[in-house]
Write a structure and sequence with these properties.
The complex is a heterodimer of chains A (about 110) and B (about 375). Chain A is mainly alpha-helical and about 110 residues long. Chain A is built from four helices and no strands. Classes of the chains: A mainly alpha (about 110), B alpha+beta (about 375).
Chain lengths: ~110, ~375
């Protein structure tokens, strides 16, 4: 809008520069953000140590139901019984079949 | 690339700036939401899979009538004799329900004879061998119920068992340890009322990864009532669970994608009289259809690439700097013992590329096709 009032040539040069700055700026900003976050987060080392001591696999996101926490180890007939990808508490039991190529299908009874 | 054409395209965008900003904003929001959801899933998955590598290779559990039951401890020795097994040991672990708070603690018994713990563990063990180490979540719950330095477990026989609190897990391991109580194995047995000759299940360490499947098969033959889980099974299962969850989100987003493309197609196919005149004037000035298409392509490409770039950058900022408020609840769900955790950064080029190729080319097609339709009209007819 305000652009149009500028002299033609000036605006052309300006828009090109703006374009370049915007492209370069957004990519640089992205790279800087990523670097900053990856440097600021603690390493996985202590987490691995905890899992090595506990020898239990799951993340403690939800702990209310036995078949959620350590579900791979606890209730046979729920999460892993029908197939490793089935959530018995979602309507997934009848809409989503485990893939036939899943190795786990033969391994887990 | 023809820079003058690019500058011309930018000027064209400026002519209808509000319409273009609206399309840009919708596109940006779409990319932002989709990449945020996938980044959260990728972060949790990365953390899970990195820690899975530390697990024992095989777990042997016993089933009776399709239910898990404790295994006899005598099986440990038999399993250890199988060639290729580095070590087999019984584990005593389970859940302890704390009714006052309505939470399940994961109680894990630790074999004190096992050597080679981590430095922070050694410190705790040296101080008091009979105490318990708890996760931050457990500590919060206990403090809420005025248990500051001990906890009273109720054993199956109804007695109280007072266990002193000797330490906590490192704070940033909360995702792994939030609901966990680590105790000496003997104390865990007392809490669960489990006899000495039984273990919850058996963990088996195998050095050579190529032997895992064979050893698992041998254990299955040795104890037909056992359920043998390899680490690979667990990995495959989690892969499926996470694919399912982000797939579910994608399925929900598909509707939004579709609506967006319908919107774009509608907007572009009802090319206004004015725009048709513009194209006709360009053609009358000697532009070929290819040139007009190139101009329109550049226009929509500029919008798409900026929306995509800013969407992805915004998603990274939202997920890793702001820690994805609201959106992470889709993945974490409800829980009393909710762990406080930081999402760890993931740079997954495959993911970014697939989002790019799922959105940008479709958008380009949705704008190019209507332009082509209006640019093949005879300019004389369009100008009249």
């Amino acid at each position: 809008m305000a652009f149009r009032k500028l002299p033609q040539r000036c605006s052309k040069v300006l828009s090109k520069r703006l374009l370049f700055l915007a492209v370069a700026g957004s990519f640089l900003a992205g790279a800087a953000l990523f670097l900053a976050f990856s440097l600021s987060t603690p390493s996985l080392g202590p987490k691995k140590e905890v899992v090595r001591v506990l020898t239990l696999p799951d993340l403690g996101l939800s702990t209310e139901a036995l078949f959620i926490r350590h579900r791979s180890h606890s209730v046979l007939s729920d999460a892993f019984g029908l197939g490793p990808s089935l959530f018995p508490f979602f309507p997934s039991d009848f809409t989503y079949a485990p893939p036939p190529f899943a190795h786990a299908l033969q391994e887990i009874r | 690339m023809n820079l003058k054409m690019l500058a011309f395209a930018v000027r064209f965008l400026q002519r209808r700036i509000w319409k273009n900003i609206a399309v840009f904003f919708v596109f940006w929001a779409l990319i932002f939401l989709v990449s945020s959801a996938f980044l959260i899933a990728a972060s949790i998955k990365k953390e899970l899979f990195a820690t899975l590598e530390e697990l024992p290779q095989i777990f042997v559990q016993r089933t009776i009538a399709g239910r898990l039951v404790p295994s006899p401890a005598s099986r440990i020795e038999k399993i250890e004799q199988i060639a290729g097994v580095e070590a087999a040991y019984g584990r005593v672990w389970g859940y302890y329900y704390f009714p006052a708070a309505g939470v399940n603690f994961s109680v894990v018994g630790l074999d004190m004879d096992m050597a080679g713990f981590t430095p922070w563990m050694d410190e705790i063990l040296a101080s008091d061998k009979e105490g318990m180490v708890v996760g931050e979540g457990v500590k919060r719950v206990l403090l809420n119920h005025y248990y500051k330095d001990y906890f009273n477990f109720i054993t199956p026989s109804g007695d109280f068992l007072k266990v002193p609190l000797v330490g906590t897990f490192p704070a940033h391991t909360e995702l792994e340890s939030s609901d966990t109580i680590l105790l000496p194995m003997q104390v865990a047995r007392t809490i669960f009322g489990m006899p000495q000759d039984q273990v919850t299940d058996i963990a088996v360490r195998v050095d050579n990864p190529k032997e895992i499947t064979t050893i698992a098969a041998k254990i299955r033959v040795l104890y037909p009532d056992s359920r043998v889980l390899t680490r690979f099974d667990i990995q495959a299962a989690y892969q499926n669970v996470f694919d399912y969850k982000s797939g579910l989100f994608l399925a929900l987003m598909l509707g939004a994608f579709f609506a967006f493309f319908i919107l774009v197609f509608e907007k572009m196919s009802s090319v206004g009289k004015e725009e048709r005149r513009e194209i006709a004037i360009l053609k009358a000035l000697g532009w070929r259809i290819g040139d007009v298409l190139r101009l329109k392509f550049l226009e929509s490409f500029l919008i798409a690439i900026f929306a995509y770039g800013l969407g992805v950058v915004g998603a990274y900022f939202f997920v890793y700097y702001l820690q994805a408020p609201l959106l992470r609840n889709i993945f974490t769900g409800f829980s009393v013992l909710k762990p406080r955790f930081e999402l760890i950064p993931v740079l997954d080029m495959g993911l970014l590329m697939s989002i790019f190729f799922a959105t940008v080319p479709l958008y380009l097609a949705a704008t190019i096709v209507p332009t082509w339709r209006s640019s093949v009209i005879d300019p004389e007819e369009a100008l009249r």
